[in-house]
Amino acid sequence: MFTSNFEPIYCIEGEKLNLKCTVYSEDIYVEWFRNNEERFKANKKIITNENISIGRDGRQHFMTVQCAKVTDSGQYNVVAANVEKQFSVIVKVMFKRPLENKTIMEGVDVSFECEVEKADHVAWFKDGDRVYPSSRLKIETLDNTVHKLTILQSKFEDEGKYSMRISDISSCAELDVKEMPDAVKQMSEYDRNIFLEAAKSGTAVRYYIRVMIVGQSGVGKTSLLRRLMNKDIKDVQSTDGINIEVKTCRINLKTEEWIFSSDFSKTPNHNEQYADCGFWDFAGQEDFYATHQTFLSTNAIYLLVVDISQDFTKKSYQDMIENEYDRIGEYVDFWLDNIHCYTLNDRNEDSINTAEFLNPPVLIIGTGIDKILEEKDRGKKIDSFHAILRNHPKRKHNRHSYFLSNHEPFEYKTEFENIRTQILKLAAEIPKWGDNLPTRWIILEKEIDSQIDKGNLIISYEEAMKLAEDCSFPIKVIDSELKSFLTYET
Ligand SMILES: Nc1nc2c(ncn2[C@@H]2O[C@H](COP(=O)(O)OP(=O)(O)OP(=O)(O)O)[C@@H](O)[C@H]2O)c(=O)[nH]1
Ligand SMILES: [Mg+2]
């Protein structure tokens, strides 16, 4: 019946697919079927439409698909009278390697690349509009089949949907341009370039909260930290001044749930964003105050702990420097003044007076409320404390005051919860919150924190170089990149 062979037919998506057969006589009628794939079901007769045409030219019969799709691949049958022939059709994808979504830091060059099955004319589009080469846009073809679009020093406005089209087939991908952190914008051009170079190997948004717990010795700083971590305080010992206890937890930014280190083994949900929260618990003994100065910073939230059951009188800051200081008011003065050294606000007196709030933010925690037995005395104590604060020149650092007992965690459960909520709220005001950083810088930051937690408060430059190397800083540039990293961190 048939005089032609039935070899497998190959074509590329978008091309015309031509199926042909020849029969030995002009009055033989031919029908085309597509194998239904699901076994036991009858083959489906092919019906013509605007994309598919069936016809004949003498003894030659044909079926044409104008624009083949990958889904046109399969087994086809051609039937003449009671003779049936089968052959396979394979429609290959045009894009052997399609475009991939890209996330990039502003200022960094970015390329979209794809590999196609055959050399052909291509066109690039951004958000549906054709794009052409320009001073910041390079379009090239490598080895005939690899097409590449490069955006030099990407800007915010480059964000969008990019596509490359061959005939009617296209491959699309999104470009997401991340903002360069403000701190990096303010760095020297040299440091900025090093940052951008490091950013090329991948960046991530870093949400990090550093909470500094400061205050007089024995007021319950470590106990407060334990309570915030949902732990008991049975074995709390006076914190040794040289040690800064760094306790970490994670906060799910969507649900605002706090995940404590004991639960770190539970797999985090990769679709959700977490903030790392590090608590630095300082020793309260005065001998160590000088050391503490080295560790305080602008980019932190301060918990200033006072034992509300103690006496407090108000002395001037000058008195305190010259004389012994041992009353609550004096400690509040001392710490607020110290924290104020790290303000980013304008330091002149007028600006301080007119500012609504000063940074860094401070939460004052009055502990030991259980030691004041009478309810009315508690109220009086809290009122006098507020009175001290009311006229304090640096009071605008203080966002909230909480009064509680570390010994009665159930009674003051809401207070502990409120402190946690407030910490997360304030974190968003911290200048480096949500910065996009090179991934290896984030890893190095975590490594340095864990060294501090192990008691290695002073890390030599050589040790830092070793840590950076362990965090995949490239050997060739390790020294300069570490210096830029340290510039960003200060
Ligand atoms: N009654 C009472 N005792 C408390 C409270 N908070 C802490 N304490 C006790 O005060 C003592 C000192 O507590 P810590 O938490 O070690 O105080 P700290 O401020 O960390 O002390 P340093 O590390 O030496 O600066 C411990 O015996 C605690 O049990 C509180 O709210 N009420
Ligand atoms: Mg302590």
Automatic annotation (TrEMBL):
Task: Tell me where it resides.
Answer: Cytoplasm
Primary residence: cytoplasm
Domain Roc residue range list? 202-448
**Which InterPro entries does its entry note?**
Ig-like_dom, Ig-like_dom_sf, Ig-like_fold, Ig_I-set, Ig_sub, Obscurin/Obscurin-like_Reg, P-loop_NTPase, ROC
Question: Keywords of this protein's UniProt record, alphabetized?
Answer: Cytoplasm, Disulfide bond, Nucleotide-binding, Phosphoprotein, Repeat
Domain Ig-like: from-to ranges? 13-88
* SMART domains linked to this entry: IG
Q: Name one GO cellular component term.
A: cytoplasm
Q: Which Pfam families match?
A: I-set, Roc
**What's a single GO MF annotation on this record?**
nucleotide binding
Protein name as it appears in the record:
Ig-like domain-containing protein
Organism of this sequence: Mytilus edulis (Blue mussel)
For this protein's source organism, the top of the classification is: Eukaryota, Metazoa, Spiralia, Lophotrochozoa, Mollusca
